[in-house]
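With this grant's support, the team has encoded backbone shapes as discrete tokens. A representative record is reproduced below.
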Amino acid sequence: MSEQNPFETAAPDAASDATPARRRNAVGVAALAVGVIGVLLGAVSTFAPIGAILQGDYALVGLLSAVSLTVAVVLGLTATILGIAGLAARDRPRAAAGVGLGLGAAHLISAVLGVTYSLVLSSLA
């Protein structure tokens, strides 16, 4: 009578272990990273002009706003382009690319609305 070890398993057959390795979408992850960096920089740029406003240096406030807008547009375009490229990749996960695309588009919409708001306010003055 042979004893069987319940903890011993047979070595897996190479042919039966055909689970494909999960591929990563580096472009999609890059789109997500650029989008998140844009969100973080946007939060910082919201509070950056407070010191200049308190000192009455409105020229510096304008400069900070222009720099913030430029950075938002560049990061928005970059995240949008990378997100589209990540979604176009075949046999790759698409979640990060989709979120990166959404964040990039939100940056671009925010920049357009910010410029429109500034133009409307300046025309009323």
About this structure: The helical segments are 26-47, 50-55, 58-88, 95-124.
